Amino acid sequence: MKKFVISALVLGLLLLAGCDESTAKANPDWQDGTYEATVEGQAGPMVVETVVEGGYIKSVTVVSHNETAGVSDAALEKIPPAIVAANSTEVDSVAGCTYTSGRIKDAVGLCLDIASGKEVAAPPAEVFVSFDAPEGVADGEYVGTAKGYGGDVTLNITVAGGKVSAIDAAGASETAGVGSKAIDAANLGKLDGVAGATVTSSAVKEAYAAAFAQDEPDLEPETEPEAEPETKPETKPETKPDPEPEPAQPAGPVDGTYSASAKGFGGDVTVTVTISGGKVTSISAVGGSETVGVGSKAIDAANGGNIDGVAGATITSNAIKEAYNAAVAKAG
């Protein structure tokens, strides 16, 4: 689908215009034309069109894609004009959208290879790209399961060198061509979800969080007292653990807003307390590094006014209480 420029005069004008628009040098190996290439994107094929004129990349257009809305938008908007400005695919990827950025550059590269008269092979198969594991997670094998659309979705996760190096996702009961795409994406380390497969995508994220939730230690279990021999009528009284500290109640506090932090599972947890009329009227908790689906539930509960803690998120729950008490103490 080439569109060749016939007029030599027009070609000369284009060459002059290219020199004005960019300091990049024209590539004499590129033949004028409109080229199209297809690569595998985040959740399906991505089609990219590249127009070459006078040795310059005149335009780059992502014709179609299946990238996740709101996640890959920045790459789709910024990478094409950056390639045009540089007259090259050697441009920086967009932070947070490195995969989509790379696939756009790969597609344009294929177009330029075609423009150079090279034989272009099919794009290489996708491979798993490792990424950082949650802070504090030791190397090893982790398994998490969550309820999907048609049944359980299970992730077998390998952590090596502090990075998630492999994911084996299984969800045989998920809808073929819909939920199955989210499973396939997870096997490549893509956990952002797939458009149209909301339930399965959410199950993948929940299973990922559940796999690492076991790494968060629980409180020591209550030790049951040893039974006395039957020959002895007396039994030892049951030993009960000390109750968890109750949130401090302000005694004559000064109205105002007070903040304090405590160490959570993944980082600092900060609680901001507003006191009005001698009473706590609002609580705001922030803990961006807490485990998604575990510690984050305790953060959400605190923001709803519940600081009693959430089962399975012991460390985060205790951090919220500690930060709350410290904030209230500042009120006097």
Please describe what this structure looks like.
With 332 residues, the protein is of the alpha+beta class. It has 7 helices and 10 strands. The protein has helices at residues 8-21, 73-86, 98-115, 179-187, 198-213, 295-303, 314-329, and strands at 33-40, 45-53, 56-64, 131-132, 140-147, 152-160, 163-170, 256-263, 268-276, 279-286. Strand 1 (33-40) and strand 2 (45-53) form a beta hairpin. It is elongated and about 90 Å long.
Keywords, separated by commas or semicolons:
single chain; 332 residues; alpha+beta; four-stranded antiparallel sheet; three-stranded antiparallel sheet; 7 helices; 29% helix; elongated; disordered N terminus
Layout of SSEs?
Elements: H1 8-21, E1 33-40, E2 45-53, E3 56-64, H2 73-86, H3 98-115, E4 131-132, E5 140-147, E6 152-160, E7 163-170, H4 179-187, H5 198-213, E8 256-263, E9 268-276, E10 279-286, H6 295-303, H7 314-329
Antiparallel strand pairs: 1-2, 2-3, 4-7, 5-6, 6-7, 8-9, 9-10
Helix pairs in contact: 2-3, 4-5, 6-7
Distance between the termini: 76 Å
Structural class: alpha+beta
Order of helices and strands: HEEEHHEEEEHHEEEHH
Q: If helices are DSSP runs of H or I spanning 4 or more residues, what is the number of helices?
A: 7
Mean pLDDT over all positions: 81
Helix content: 25-40%
Got a strand count?
10
